[in-house]
Write a structure and sequence with these properties.
Number of helices: 4
Number of strands: 18
CATH architecture of the largest domain: Roll
CATH class of the largest domain: Alpha Beta
CATH topology of the largest domain: Diaminopimelate Epimerase, Chain A, domain 1
Oligomer: single chain
Radius of gyration: 18 Å
Number of domains: 2
Shape: globular
Bound molecules: ligand LBFN2T5F
Distance between the termini: 5 Å
Strand content: 35-45%
CATH superfamily of the largest domain: Diaminopimelate Epimerase, Chain A, domain 1
Structural class: alpha+beta
Order of helices and strands: EEHEEEHEEEEEEHEEEHEEEE
Largest sheet: 18 strands, mixed
């Protein structure tokens, strides 16, 4: 099988994007893992598959696979790349594009300056829906009820986290300095803990001031990436809930900056940022 793909990235979070409307694509997790390999394959953090939508008032279906081959609910940087991809492939000429993901509906807006603003929907803070088990392994502790932050036990240490779903699960740890944070060791330990039954993306946030944060993210199914769009949204939501941030925040990730805003409650989180197309290619499987 020959597959035509486009390599894209959003702030260095890189993707292989495949037009599954003009090509018949059925990939196994093994094939995705092979393609994601940076030595033996193409190399990417996520594979994005564009399909026709069977949902009313929605232009496309947008499927997301991590480099470990697992299909996931949401990808913020990917959504921005997706918007440019469907326009570049002449699949649409719309500037406002509605897509359905495993998690629900997203609205993408291609701005005149080329940036894409995504309505990421309202964040979910209710533990059971993230899913997050606040009292895992210690059922006599406080119940699994919504709090501003939670203390969890990781490697015999108490770690304070914010827990947020942006369609996919996120834990947010506040650190003094993202540069010296033990992103891989702590990220992996939180991911593997019984607090998050579906695993979790772990963000390490340094609050610079009320409108600026630095963020590194250890992603589920990938490891540390240069940027994570849903991670940026989750970190800003966690910071706002804890009273540390204003409603509009610049998020400085390893690969560059995203602008995130949230007016609280059931309002949607808005994410704005750039995308880039790197090359087009064909792979034979
Ligand atoms: N890089 C993404 C998130 C991709 C999915 C994530 N690794 C998960 O498993 O939930 C983004 O930009 O949001």
């Amino acid at each position: 099988m020959n597959i035509i793909f486009t390599k894209m990235h959003g702030l260095g979070n890189d993707f292989v994007v495949i037009n599954g409307i003009d090509q018949t694509i059925n990939l196994t997790p093994e094939q995705i893992r092979f393609m994601s390999d940076r030595q033996f394959g193409i190399g990417f953090d996520q594979l994005l598959l564009v399909e026709k939508s069977d949902v009313e008032d929605t232009d496309f279906r947008y499927r997301i696979f991590n480099s470990d081959g697992g299909e996931v609910e949401q990808c913020g940087n990917g959504a921005r790349c997706f918007a440019h991809f469907v326009r570049n492939e002449n699949l649409t000429d719309k500037k406002e594009i509605a897509v359905i993901t495993k998690n629900g509906r997203l609205i993408l807006n291609v701005e005149d300056n080329g940036n894409v603003t995504v309505d990421m929907g309202a964040p979910i803070l209710e533990p059971a829906q993230i899913p997050f088990i606040a009292n895992a392994g210690n059922e006599d502790k406080a119940e699994n009820v919504q709090q501003k932050s939670y203390s969890i036990q990781i490697n015999q240490q108490n770690i304070e986290i914010g827990a947020v779903s942006m369609g996919n699960p996120h834990a947010v740890v506040i650190v003094d300095d993202t540069q010296s944070a033990d992103v891989e060791k702590l990220g992996k330990a939180i991911q593997e803990s019984s607090y998050f039954p579906n695993s979790v993306n772990v963000g390490f946030m340094q609050v610079i001031d009320r409108q600026n944060i630095k963020l590194r993210v250890y992603e589920r199914g990938v490891g540390e990436t240069q940027a994570c769009g849903t991670g940026a949204c989750a970190a800003v939501v966690a910071g706002i809930v804890q009273g540390l941030l204003d409603s509009k925040v610049d998020v400085n990730l390893l690969g560059g900056n995203l602008s995130i805003s949230w007016a609280g409650d059931t309002n949607p989180v808005m994410m704005s940022g750039p995308t880039a197309t790197v090359f087009k290619g064909m792979i034979s499987l």
